[in-house]
Design brief:
363 residues, two-stranded antiparallel sheet, mainly beta, twelve-stranded antiparallel barrel
């Protein structure tokens, strides 16, 4: 049997039903730990509004925007300095309607000291019904994260997964180095840099499909029916006969004397003849005939084997640069995605992604 092998990889979530905004999260400075500290301090409530644009929307090894540009509008309410409630609306350039899907989030973050912090969140994504088959299905997911400041390096480890019966999970390890310029414009503005390397680990499902042909041999045997003949012969006969006859005779003689004489005679007779006979015979007919036919047919076959293992999926390098003011943050980011696997049939996103965003503090 000859076979062709096909490897296909899908990560974590069912057919592009992926969570959160890797690029958008980075594009919203409010969600970055350092930027949040800059955006505001104190226990009071706050309100932020923002918008952004990106060349592609990628998260967890897949593109949510189908490799198309996207834009978004963002509104966040700070219930306290640590607890935020936010909502976003997203537009995809090549899809209708104008708002392709929405998201809502409840996030919490807390700094225990100068070197350790934690965060957690619950997120909901709601797609327009007309785009559910094209983009993804509605889903809810959650994550928890812990950050450690090593002075020269900040490490954040996050673990998340879908809220569902059989949740798929992932792990991210992000190392970054935040630094900023001295203040300018009367020390009301500064520029910050936050280069990072993000490692994504998740469940990789490998599908191995083998296709080829196998030969199926069919043998059929046919037996011809038996034919026979039999007969009986019986013969019988009877006969009768009659007969009649006349006769005459003369005689003469010579001797020493003389004489003469004559005579006549007649007779009749009858007879009969009869006979009978019977006989039988059997014709052996034709002997049974057996015929065998063998047919060989090629039949295509396909077998599929699934395997799953937790491994490195993707490496992302990024450089966000932000202009920070008292009431506004403007940010631009360039990142590069590098898949940690090779699959010509289902390649992962690879290459540069660019995003720009603006965040405004209303109060």
């Amino acid at each position: 049997m000859t076979a062709a092998r096909l490897l296909s990889c899908s990560f974590l979530f069912l057919l592009l039903t992926f969570s959160a905004l890797s690029q958008a999260d980075n594009a919203i400075p409010l969600l970055a730990p350092d930027s949040t500290k800059i955006a505001g301090e104190g226990p009071g409530q706050s309100l932020y509004a923002g918008m952004g644009y990106g060349s592609n929307m990628v998260y967890l090894g897949s593109t949510i925007s189908r490799n198309q540009p996207f834009g978004y509008a963002y509104l966040a309410l700070g219930l306290t300095h640590d607890l935020f409630l936010s909502a976003s609306a997203f537009n995809l350039s090549y899809f209708e309607p104008f708002v392709a899907f929405y998201s809502g989030a409840l996030t919490y973050s807390h700094d225990f000291n100068s070197w350790f912090d934690i965060s957690a969140g619950v997120y909901r994504y709601q797609v327009q019904p007309s785009l559910a088959d094209t983009l993804f299905s509605n889903f809810t997911y959650g994550d928890v994260a812990a950050g450690i400041d090593w002075r020269l390096l900040y490490t954040e480890i996050s673990f998340g997964g879908f809220i569902m019966k059989d949740p798929q999970t992932y792990l991210q390890v992000k190392n970054s180095r935040y630094f900023m310029t001295p203040g300018f414009s009367k020390k009301k503005a500064f520029i910050s840099f936050d280069p990072y390397v993000n490692l994504l680990f998740g469940n990789m499902i490998t599908v191995e499909s083998y296709s080829g042909t196998t030969l199926v041999t069919t043998t059929q045997t046919y037996t011809s029916p038996v034919s026979s003949a039999s007969g009986t012969d019986s013969r019988a006969g009877a006969g009768s006969g009659s007969g009649s006859g006349t006769g005459s005779g003369a005689g003469s003689g010579a001797g020493t004397g003389s004489g003469a004489g004559s005579g006549a005679g007649s007779g009749s007779g009858s007879g009969s003849d009869s006979g009978s006979g019977s006989g039988s015979s059997t014709d052996p007919g034709t002997a049974p005939a057996t015929t065998t036919t063998t047919t060989t047919t090629p039949v295509p076959i396909t077998s599929t084997v699934f395997s799953e293992n937790f491994r490195l999926i993707e490496i992302e390098f990024g450089l966000p640069v932000a202009l920070n003011l008292d009431f506004m943050i403007l940010e631009a980011e360039a990142s590069y995605l590098l898949p940690a696997y090779s699959d010509s049939a289902y390649p992962g996103p690879k290459g540069f992604i660019f995003t720009v965003s603006a965040l405004f503090k209303i109060f």
